Amino acid sequence: MKVKKGFVIRKVAGKYVVVATGQASREFHGMVKLNETGKIIWEGIADGRTEEEIVNILAEKSGAKTGEDRAYIADDVKSMIKEMADAGFLTE
Length: 92
Description:
Distance between the termini: 4 Å
Strand content: 15-25%
Structural class: alpha+beta
Strand order of the largest sheet: 2-3-4
Order of helices and strands: EEEHEHHHE
Helix content: 40-55%
Number of helices: 4
Largest sheet: 3 strands, antiparallel
Radius of gyration: 14 Å
């Protein structure tokens, strides 16, 4: 899975947003606001990382200590990836 061509992250007024450029802007009109976790997930997918690799990055960044902490992070990653796919931001 990867982010469809034409969607980019920008930092605007201290916040992260995803905007459509080029052909993608003909189909998507608007922007998506991301928090720091969302930014890491989005960039992980854009960089070709696996879901597990993204979970590892977030677990390390957050200092996750237990399997329960890691499971919570994995659920968040899975949920955001599903939302991105459902919104049409991802391609295989």
